[in-house]
Amino acid sequence: MELNEQQKQNRSKKMMVWFGMISMAMTFAGLTSAYVVSSTRADWLSNFELPQVFTFSTMVILFSSASFYWAKKQLQQGRLGSFKQGLFLTLALTIGFVVLQFQGFNQIIASGYYFTGAESSITTSFLYVLVLLHLAHVFAGLIVLTVVLIRASLNKYSPVQTLGVELAELFWHFLDFLWLYLYLFVRFYE
Questions:
Q1: Is 120 a domain residue?
Q2: Could you count the other beta carbons within 10 Å of the beta carbon of residue 58?
Q3: Are the CB atoms for 124 and 113 separated by under 8 Å?
Q4: What pTM, to 2 d.p., does this model score?
Q5: Cα→Cα distances 105→40, 53, 62, 114, Å
Q6: pLDDT tens, position by position, 97-153
Q7: How many CB atoms lie within 10 A of CB 148?
Q8: Packing angle between helix 163-188 and helix 5-38, nearest 10 degrees?
Q9: CATH number of the domain that residue 65 is part of
Q10: CA dihedral for 109, 110, 113, 114, sign (positive or negative)
């Protein structure tokens, strides 16, 4: 079957998102591998516990994934008002996730662990790098979500014009499951 020009462009855009996600996954795979290797060091903290607030942030980001999925389904069914509400809910949940992440950092700092300096440890330095790098990608996701929200408010999407939403949702789910992986890895790796 011969693809038309628009279908070819759509396919190449999806492939670019996949390449980006694969490269991000490889980055985090490398970091978690370095975490494993570093955990054999004598100065590794074996009694460090991840603050409970990171558990709450994990639940919030998973709900944001569900709300984005729901929003896309509303768009596909022609419920544009519900679609926009789902996007705003996703935005609110993401802001909640970011706030909870910083509360988690504040708790780590309050426990006396810093990113660098005499009060730092290799364990918490790795945690800072993993979480902050993920947050950088979440901020990129927030930019993507904002663009989708602006385009939605300008009625640029319809049940047959969903590519931007599909790409944003794909990236969003990736970010959410990447966080879930990082959270479970740090929480249960010993």
A1: yes
A2: 19
A3: yes
A4: 0.89
A5: 24, 9, 20, 9
A6: 999 999 998 998 888 887 777 777 888 888 889 999 999 999 999 999 999 999 999
A7: 26
A8: 10
A9: 1.20.120.80
A10: positive
